[in-house]
């Protein structure tokens, strides 16, 4: 018998990692030698966007979910040459900045930024009406969600984009923990800083007294859930306050701060189908570490 049960643990939703400092630390992570996803996906997009355009056709409307700094987008826009581009992001300032930059680099494309939470229902701007839709969701951001939530998101993307739409999504593959764990626990300690930043943020924004130096960063492969988990482990028995409330942690106890789910080829296609999307093409790097999947609603 295999028993997969693990005890209940403390956890904080991963979205709180991404304040200004956290977003900058994540940018630094994407350049680390151990963090393969960004450079692998960028190389795939450089090579494969023309193949994507051949299947989807040129023109139409490209809708990017969680566009952030939109660094991967030019490859797609160049190949697809859409009529309009709708970047969606929750951070309005960031969104407007990168939308302006893209609009001046691609004067022929109608750039229509949409400020909002892509996890909820969205109404696309008027300027995108009547155009064939291509959703773009790179970065294996879907890996942050537990499968139940990722399927909800895929369904709502299908509702937003409509039947006949395409979705181009980047999904990180299951691979050896010898590769995965260092990608989330780098030798320069940048990912550790990214994790500690959450505690610093709690201290400054919620009147916390968390002793940050009493925690250790941990990246753990959870094989049953097929995900990397980031934790903060208490190095000794500690007590602290957050927003006037007292907390204690015993030595060795952890706070679970992020999940990064990984998917095998059929896992990814099943998840897409559960959300209403059928895979029509799939590209990977020579090591099969990262997949770029084109699916149809
Ligand atoms: C932004 C969610 C894709 O899971 O690889 C990287 C976040 N956390 N290192 C990932 C992350 C620590 C990243 N995603």
From TrEMBL:
Keyword ATP-binding: no
InterPro entries: EgtD, EgtD_Methyltrsf_superfamily, MeTrfase_dom, MeTrfase_EgtD-like, SAM-dependent_MTases_sf
Keywords assigned: Methyltransferase, Transferase
Domain of life: Bacteria
Pfam families (UniProt xref): Methyltransf_33
SUPFAM superfamilies assigned to the protein according to its UniProt record, in alphabetical order: S-adenosyl-L-methionine-dependent methyltransferases (SSF53335)
Any one GO BP annotation for this protein: methylation
Gene3D superfamilies according to UniProt: Vaccinia Virus protein VP39
Domain named Histidine-specific methyltransferase SAM-dependent: residues: 8-296
EC identifiers of the protein: 2.1.1.44
UniProt entry tagged with the keyword DNA damage: no
GO MF, any single term: L-histidine N(alpha)-methyltransferase activity
Descriptive protein name: L-histidine N(Alpha)-methyltransferase
Protein source organism: Alterisphingorhabdus coralli
């Amino acid at each position: 018998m295999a028993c997969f049960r693990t005890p209940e643990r403390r956890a904080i939703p991963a979205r709180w990692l991404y304040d200004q400092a956290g977003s900058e630390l994540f940018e630094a992570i994407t350049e680390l030698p151990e963090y393969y996803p960004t450079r692998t996906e960028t190389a795939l997009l450089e090579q494969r966007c023309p193949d994507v355009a051949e299947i989807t056709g040129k023109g139409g409307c490209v809708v990017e979910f969680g566009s952030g700094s939109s660094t991967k987008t030019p490859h797609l826009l160049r190949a697809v040459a859409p009529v309009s581009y709708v970047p969606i992001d929750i951070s309005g300032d960031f969104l407007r900045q990168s939308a302006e930059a893209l609009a001046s680099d691609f004067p022929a494309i109608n750039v229509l930024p949409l400020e909002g939470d892509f996890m909820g229902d969205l109404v696309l701007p008027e300027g995108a009406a009547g155009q064939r839709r291509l959703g773009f969701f790179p970065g294996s951001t879907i890996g942050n969600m537990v499968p139940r939530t990722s399927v909800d998101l895929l369904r709502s993307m299908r509702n937003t984009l409509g039947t006949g739409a395409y979705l181009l999504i980047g999904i990180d593959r299951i691979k050896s923990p010898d590769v995965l764990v260092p990608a989330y626990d780098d030798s320069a300690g940048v990912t550790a800083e990214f994790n500690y930043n959450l505690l610093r943020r709690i201290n400054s924004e919620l009147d916390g007294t968390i002793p940050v130096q009493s925690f250790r960063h941990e990246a753990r492969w959870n094989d049953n859930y097929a995900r990397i988990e980031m934790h903060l482990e208490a190095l000794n028995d500690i007590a602290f306050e957050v927003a006037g409330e007292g907390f204690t942690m015993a030595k060795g106890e952890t706070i679970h701060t992020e999940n990064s789910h990984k998917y095998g080829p059929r896992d990814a296609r099943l998840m897409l189908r559960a959300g209403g999307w059928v895979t029509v093409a799939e590209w990977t790097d020579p090591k099969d570490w990262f997949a770029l999947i084109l699916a149809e609603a």
